[in-house]
C-alpha cells in the first residue's frame, strides 16, 4: 500500500514537471537537418553565404536554427521584416563573439566591437556629425583621387591591358579614406608621392594576417588564443596588429601637427569638422589607444566594403553593356555634375548591393527578450541571431532574385523589395559610414561610366572572407566616345 502511495506521488511530480517544462515549452524555429559537422565545414569556407542561402530557400518562413558548437540556439533570420525587428529591438546587442576582433587592435576594444554602452555611444556620437551628407559632398568635390583614377584608366585604356577591378578599387579606396576620413592624409596608393607614401601598402600588408587570425581562426577555435605563442602565424598576426595600431598613431600624430601648423582659424575649424578631427578632439576616450583602435576600425570598415561594392558594380555593368550605355547617357545628359541626383545611378547601385552585399553574412545580435514570430514560433532571449544579408536579399518574395535588374528600383518599387534590402544593416548599430560609402560609389561610378566603356574579359568568382569579394575577374577599359547630339 505504502509503495502505491509513493508511486502516485512520483507520478504526480512527473505530471507537474511535464506541465511546467514541456507543455509550456516554446516552439523554436525549425532546426536545419544538416549535421554540425556539415554546417561547420560549410561555414568555414569562402562559400558560406551560398550555403546559408541554400538553407534559407528550404524554409518558407526564412527563419531556422543551425547546428553550431554553441550552447545557445543559433537562429538564422533571412526574412527582412523579422531581421528588422531583431536589429531594431531595444533589448538586442552585439554578442561577445565580436570581441575576438579586438586582437586586430592589439587588444583594445573599438567602437565596432564594443557592446552598447558608454564606450560605443560616445565614439559613435562623436563622429556621426562628420558623416553628414553635405560635409561629405564638400570633401568629395575636392578629391584628388578622382584625377588619379582618371590617369590610371587613361593608361589602361591606351595600353589595352586587362586589370583586376577589385584590386584597383581597393587601392583607390585606401587613398580616398586618407582624403576623407583622415582629412587629406596621403596613403600613396594611386596618388603616390606624399611624405607618407607607402603607408597604404603597410596597412594592406598588415590587415590580412590580422583579419585571418582574429576574425576567422580565433573565432572558430578559441583554444588558439592559449597556444598563440607556439603558432608562427598567430605570432605574425600579433605583430601585424601592433603595426596597424602604429599606423593609426602615426596618422593621428600627422593630423595633430597639420592642425597645429594651420595658417588660419578657419582652416583649423575645417580640420576640426572632419572625422579624424572629431575623433582626436573627443575628450571621452579613456585612453589614446582606444582612439587608435577606432582609427584602425575606420580603415578596415571603410576600404574593402566600398572597394568591392564598386568592383561588383563594374563587373555587372561590363556584363550588361546596355545598362552601362543607358547609365552613361543619363549621367551625361543631365546629371554629370551632380551624380547624386541620378535615379538610374541610385537604382544600379541598389541592385548591385542587393545581389552582392559585401557584408554577405551580415550582423549578429543577441536578444534580451523573447521575440514571437507570426507563425507562433519564438526566438528565445539569449539566442544568437545571425542575419545574413545575401540570403535576405536573394530569397522570395523578392522576384527573380538572382538577376541584375536595376529597373526594379525605378517605379512602383515592391514594398517587399525594400523590406528585404539592408546592405548597411539597420537599427542603432547600422553602418555609420553609409553616407560616405554611397557618395563615393556615386562619384566614382559616374566618373568611370561617363568616361569609359567596360569590357568583361573574365567574370569574377565570389569569394567570402568577412566581405564578399569579386575574386580573379578581369576588365578592360576604352575611352567612351563623346555623346552625339
Ligand atoms: C559599401 C560600403 C559599406 C557597407 C556595405 C557597410 C556595411 C556595414 C554593416 C552591414 C555594418 C553593421 C555590421 C554589424 O552589425 O556587425 C557596418 C558597421 C560599420 N561600418 Fe560600414 N559599410 C560600408 C562602408 C563603411 C565606411 C566607408 C565606413 C567608414 C569609413 C564604415 C564604418 C563602419 C563602422 C565604424 C561600423 C560600426 C558601427 C557601430 O557599431 O556603431 N563602413 N557597416
TrEMBL record:
<dbReference type="InterPro" id="IPR050121">
    <property type="entry name" value="Cytochrome_P450_monoxygenase"/>
</dbReference>
<keyword id="KW-0479">Metal-binding</keyword>
<comment type="similarity">
    <text>Belongs to the cytochrome P450 family.</text>
</comment>
<dbReference type="GO" id="GO:0005506">
    <property type="term" value="F:iron ion binding"/>
</dbReference>
<protein>
    <recommendedName>
        <fullName>Cytochrome P450</fullName>
    </recommendedName>
</protein>
<keyword id="KW-0408">Iron</keyword>
<keyword id="KW-0503">Monooxygenase</keyword>
<keyword id="KW-0349">Heme</keyword>
<dbReference type="Pfam" id="PF00067">
    <property type="entry name" value="p450"/>
</dbReference>
<feature type="binding site" description="axial binding residue">
    <location>
        <position position="431"/>
    </location>
    <ligand>
        <name>heme</name>
    </ligand>
</feature>
<keyword id="KW-0560">Oxidoreductase</keyword>
<dbReference type="InterPro" id="IPR002401">
    <property type="entry name" value="Cyt_P450_E_grp-I"/>
</dbReference>
<dbReference type="InterPro" id="IPR036396">
    <property type="entry name" value="Cyt_P450_sf"/>
</dbReference>
<dbReference type="GO" id="GO:0004497">
    <property type="term" value="F:monooxygenase activity"/>
</dbReference>
<dbReference type="GO" id="GO:0016705">
    <property type="term" value="F:oxidoreductase activity, acting on paired donors, with incorporation or reduction of molecular oxygen"/>
</dbReference>
<dbReference type="GO" id="GO:0020037">
    <property type="term" value="F:heme binding"/>
</dbReference>
<dbReference type="InterPro" id="IPR017972">
    <property type="entry name" value="Cyt_P450_CS"/>
</dbReference>
<dbReference type="InterPro" id="IPR001128">
    <property type="entry name" value="Cyt_P450"/>
</dbReference>
Amino acid at each position: 500500500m505504502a509503495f502505491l502511495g509513493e508511486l502516485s506521488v512520483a507520478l504526480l511530480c512527473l505530471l507537474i514537471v511535464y506541465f511546467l517544462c514541456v507543455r509550456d515549452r516554446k516552439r523554436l524555429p525549425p532546426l536545419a537537418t544538416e549535421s554540425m559537422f556539415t554546417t561547420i565545414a560549410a561555414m568555414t569556407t569562402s562559400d558560406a553565404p551560398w550555403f546559408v542561402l541554400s538553407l534559407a530557400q528550404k524554409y518558407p518562413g526564412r527563419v531556422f536554427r543551425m547546428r553550431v558548437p554553441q550552447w545557445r540556439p543559433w537562429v538564422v533570420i533571412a526574412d527582412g521584416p523579422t531581421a528588422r525587428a531583431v536589429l531594431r529591438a531595444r533589448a538586442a546587442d552585439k554578442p561577445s563573439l565580436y570581441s575576438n576582433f579586438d586582437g586586430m587592435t592589439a587588444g583594445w576594444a573599438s567602437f565596432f566591437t564594443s557592446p552598447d554602452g558608454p564606450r560605443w555611444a560616445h565614439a559613435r556620437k562623436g563622429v556621426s556629425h562628420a558623416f553628414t551628407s553635405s560635409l561629405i559632398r564638400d570633401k568629395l568635390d575636392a578629391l584628388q583621387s578622382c584625377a588619379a583614377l582618371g590617369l590610371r584608366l587613361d593608361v589602361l585604356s591606351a595600353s589595352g591591358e586587362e586589370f583586376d577591378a577589385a584590386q584597383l578599387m581597393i587601392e583607390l579606396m585606401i587613398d580616398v579614406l586618407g582624403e576623407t576620413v583622415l582629412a587629406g592624409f596621403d596613403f600613396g596608393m594611386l596618388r603616390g608621392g606624399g611624405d607618407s607614401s607607402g603607408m597604404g601598402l603597410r596597412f594592406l600588408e598588415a590587415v590580412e594576417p590580422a583579419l585571418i587570425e582574429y576574425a576567422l581562426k580565433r573565432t572558430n577555435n578559441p583554444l588558439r588564443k592559449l597556444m598563440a605563442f607556439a603558432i608562427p602565424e598567430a605570432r605574425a598576426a600579433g605583430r601585424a596588429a601592433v603595426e596597424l595600431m602604429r599606423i593609426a598613431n602615426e596618422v593621428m600624430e600627422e593630423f595633430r601637427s597639420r592642425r597645429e601648423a594651420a595658417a588660419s582659424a578657419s582652416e583649423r575649424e575645417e580640420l576640426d569638422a572632419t572625422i579624424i578631427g572629431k575623433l582626436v578632439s573627443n575628450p571621452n576616450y579613456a585612453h589614446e589607444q582606444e582612439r587608435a583602435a577606432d582609427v584602425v576600425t575606420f580603415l578596415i570598415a571603410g576600404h574593402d566594403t566600398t572597394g568591392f561594392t564598386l568592383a561588383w558594380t563594374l563587373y555587372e555593368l561590363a556584363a550588361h553593356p546596355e545598362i552601362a550605355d543607358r547609365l552613361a547617357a543619363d549621367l551625361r545628359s543631365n546629371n554629370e555634375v551632380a551624380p547624386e541626383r541620378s535615379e538610374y545611378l541610385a537604382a544600379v547601385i541598389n541592385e548591385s548591393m542587393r545581389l552582392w552585399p559585401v557584408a554577405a553574412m551580415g550582423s549578429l545580435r543577441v536578444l534580451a527578450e523573447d521575440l514571437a514570430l507570426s507563425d507562433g514560433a519564438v526566438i528565445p532571449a539569449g539566442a544568437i541571431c545571425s542575419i545574413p544579408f545575401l540570403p535576405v536579399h536573394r530569397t522570395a518574395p523578392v522576384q527573380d532574385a538572382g538577376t541584375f535588374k536595376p529597373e526594379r528600383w525605378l517605379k512602383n518599387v515592391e514594398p517587399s523589395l525594400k523590406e528585404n534590402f539592408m546592405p548597411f544593416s539597420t537599427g542603432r548599430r547600422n553602418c555609420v559610414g553609409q553616407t560616405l560609402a554611397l557618395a563615393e560609389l556615386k562619384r566614382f561610378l559616374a566618373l568611370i561610366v561617363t568616361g569609359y566603356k567596360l569590357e568583361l574579359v573574365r567574370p569574377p568568382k565570389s569569394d567570402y572572407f568577412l566581405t564578399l569579394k569579386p575574386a580573379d575577374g578581369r576588365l578592360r577599359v576604352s575611352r567612351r566616345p563623346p555623346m552625339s547630339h
